[in-house]
Amino acid sequence: MQVKSLTKTVCLLTAATMSSGTLLAAQPAVPLCACVSDAPDWNFPSEASRLLKEIRSAAFRLTDNAANLKSYGPGGVSWHGHAGELTLIREQINAVGKRIQRLHTIRHATAPWQQEAIDSMTPMAATLASRTEAAIRYLQDNRTYLWSETYRDHVQTLSSRADQMKKSVSLHLELAETLDKLEALRDRTASIGS
């Protein structure tokens, strides 16, 4: 298995975790749309919400893949099965990493709740990426010894962090919906009083 793109994701997420600014200095994994620089009225909060929803979907898939990997008992599944799940996890993490990178780029123009979501997800994604890379390397070196304490720890961390990310993103999106409902109720209340 190649870990090149996963290593890049780990590096980008780690840099995002450590920096308080954006990832503009890093080479973007996905070229930014040319329309971003040409459109001064680009709706960054809307884009951020869309990206967060995409991350939530990826986190649900990550949770399922990590749970599958965690359910594999000793001797029940060959190393090929483990490699397949780790490949799926790696693909989801890379997808999340690209979205988080974009979120860091537009963070300055997003709503406060979106900034909180970005800040809370970044370290979780960095942990997921580094643990996935470690699990892949372990699997490459130890195909016949899949239930060592080291490997089980990687798998357990993948499972718990994926679930944590899913819950965190879901809660932030639920908070946004609640804030929108509150604002709508305020508008209705103000219109009744007029």
Order of helices and strands: HHHHHH
Q: Write down the CATH class.
A: Mainly Alpha
Largest sheet: none
Strand content range: under 5%
CATH level 3 topology: Four Helix Bundle (Hemerythrin (Met), subunit A)
The first-to-last residue Cα distance is: 65 Å
Secondary-structure-based class equals mainly alpha
Let me know the number of strands.
0
- Helical run tally: 6
Please state the second-level CATH architecture: Up-down Bundle
Question: Which regions contain 5 or more consecutive residues with pLDDT less than 50?
Answer: 16-40
**Helical residue percent?**
over 70%
Overall geometry comes to elongated
State the domain count: 1
> What is the radius of gyration?
19 Å
Calculate the mean pLDDT score and round it. 82
What would you say this structure looks like, in words?
The protein is mainly α and 194 residues long. The protein has a single domain, classed as Four Helix Bundle (Hemerythrin (Met), subunit A) (Up-down Bundle). Helix content is 78%, strand content 0%. α3 packs antiparallel against α6 (149-193), α4 runs antiparallel to α5 and α5 (112-141) runs antiparallel to α6 (149-193).
